[in-house]
Structures are given as structure tokens and as C-alpha cells.
Amino acid sequence: MVAILREPWPVLERFIAWHLAAGAERMHLVFDDPDDPAIPRLEGIPALDIHPATEAFWQACGIGKAEHFTRRQNNAMRYLYQRATSDWVVNLDGDELVFCRDGRLSDLLARQSTDVRSILMGVAEHVRRDDAAEACDQFRLPMWPGLSRRIYREFSCYMEPNRGLIGHTVGKSVVRTGLPSKRFHPHWLVGEDGKRIVDQKITAEDGVGILHYYGDDYDVWRRKLDYRVGAQARNRRNEILKALQEFLEAGDEEGLRDFYIRMHYLNARQVNLLASRGRLLEVDTAYPPLSELALS
After folding, report:
1. Over the range 51-85, which residues count as b (16 or more CB within 10 Å of their CB) and which as e?
2. Alpha-carbon dihedral of residues 13, 25, 210, 53, nearest 10 degrees?
3. Can you give the pLDDT at residue 227?
4. Residue 268, exposed/middle/buried by CB under 10 A (0-12, 13-18, 19+)?
5. How many other β-carbons are positioned within 10 Å of the β-carbon of residue 253?
6. How many Å apart are CA 169 and CA 187, to the nearest integer?
7. Using an 8 Å Cβ cutoff, are 149 and 286 in contact?
8. Quick one: which of 288, 284, 286, 258 has its CA closest to 138?
9. Most exposed residue of 27, 67, 170, 274, measured as fewest CB within 10 angstroms of its CB?
């Protein structure tokens, strides 16, 4: 597993502990802040390879530290992919968890024929409940336009174009190592011919996918918001980004918080409707403490 990270400790701990418990063989963690305070807390854990993103690291990746984050991310992932010693590699963000309902991802990969080079795993997006004080283990799945309109009603103008989600709807690929490639896109490997390498697709409702905690915490979401509004492509999320930009320009923090709640929280009616249409995934997201896993 490879990841480039700039997250608060609770998010990092969940990401690392979850995947170690799930059987990740090696985790290559690139810290975009080379002085990240999490680095000394993680040193000495056998399965982790820590890469502080110093100027020397970026030079080794063939890019400068001042380049746009997406370009640096792609170069870092390709650099680590080319040096991977495992049979398969998956590139994740710190707010994403690989989910396997039955067994481990390694079991699924071991069953693949040699002509399968890549499997694209679909996404499920974490939601919060407006009638619960604690976070729940529920995730909404991409949905069709008619259902999106029923779920979100007048707010559907923001949600429907992106299939009822806020984050990406594509998913992430797990890829065989050793493939000739042009670049490592966040969602798939791009071959030397410029075409994406995706041989199979599997959805989260099938039992294997990506649990995406996109915008799960307001303070973390707010800290990243200015970058995301400026960096994300104007496509299916045009209306969302336009609204967020207007809130930012007006300095309307109350409006931002209300908009955030409408994007990421569900009420009982919405939950029941999603569940009745098979668009709500429930997963036990408990994981052992990192301190226990570090000793194994």
C-alpha cells in the first residue's frame, strides 16, 4: 500500500491500524510535511516504511517540492510502485479504508488469473446521522438520478450530478507490480500507451471496496476546503463547488457549516429510503489499537 498523507493523528491512526489488522504486507507512507509530528510515533513499526517528503525525496521522484500537489502525488506513487516488492499495490488516501466482507483482499488477489493486471474497487461514502451523537458505521453507495432526487429533494441539484456522493465515485485500483507504466493516476495505473489499466471492477456492495471518510470531520473538512475548491475539476461537482466558493468569498462560516451538514448528514427518512433501495452499506469499522498491532 502506498499513500501520501497530511492528516491529523486520529485519521492516521485509523488508516494505519485498520490496514495492518486487515493484513497489509507493507505500507509506504509519504508525509507531505517532512516534519509531521506523527513520524516519530510510527517509527519502529515493522510493516511501515516512512518517507518524509523532503526536497531530496521529491528529487528522487523526479519533481520539485513546489509543484502542484496532484503532480507530486502521482510522481510519488509511481516512484514507490516501481520499487514495490509485493505482488500487488494499492494507492489510497488517508481517509480511505479497503473493505473486504469475506476474508482479506490478499485472498481475492490470490485467486486471480495471471491475465488480471488490475481490479478497480468501487466506493462507499461515510455518512453521519442527524439523530445520533456518535458516528455510525453506515456508508451511502452511488445512486441513480431518480433516487438521488427522492433522497435529497431540493438539495438534489448539488448531489444528483455526482451520483449522490460528495467525494469521488470512481473507486481505487489494486494493481499488479512490474507493469510498464506512464504514470500512476490516483485511481488507476496508466500504461505506456496512455490508456488506463483496469481489467476488472468490483463494487462495495459486492463485498470488496473503498470506505471513503470524505468530509467526515467538519474541522478537517474546513481546513482542506480552500485547496479543494481551487483544485478540483469543474465537472459533476460544479454546483457544489460554486456554492462553496460563494460561502468562502462572503466569509459565511454559518452557511458553510449548514451546507456541510446537508452534504454529509442523513435523517431517518433518508436512511430508510437508501436502505430499502440497497444503497446503504453497513460495516463494522472497529479495529485494534495501533499500539497492539505495532507489537505483532
Report:
1. bebeeebbeebebeeeeeeeebbbbbbbbbbeebe
2. 60
3. 82
4. exposed
5. 11
6. 10
7. no
8. 284
9. 67
pLDDT in tens, 103-144: 889 999 999 999 999 999 999 999 998 877 666 799 999 999
Q: How confident is the model at residue 228, as a pLDDT?
A: 82
Task: For the chain, list the strands marked E by DSSP.
Answer: 2-5, 27-31, 48-52, 88-90, 96-100, 118-121, 123-126, 128-129, 138-140, 172-176, 183-184, 189-190, 196-197, 200-202, 208-212, 265-266, 280-282
> Which among 278, 264, 291, 269 has a CA at the least distance from the CA of 136?
264
| Nearest in space to 97 (alpha carbons), one of 283, 266, 279, 291 | 283
- Residue 231 predicted with pLDDT over 80: no
CA distance between the termini of the chain: 18
| Contact between 236 and 162 (Cβ < 8 Å) | yes
Q: Which residues contact 203 (CB under 8 A, 6 or more apart)?
A: 122, 141, 209
CB-CB contact of 248 with 229 (8 Å): yes
How far is Cα 42 from Cα 33, in angstroms, rounded to an integer? 15
Q: Name which of 181, 211, 213 is nearest 121 in CA terms.
A: 211
Q: How many residues does the chain have?
A: 296
178: left (phi over 0), alpha (psi -120 to 50) or beta: left
Residue 208: half-sphere exposure toward Cβ, Cα within 13 Å: 18
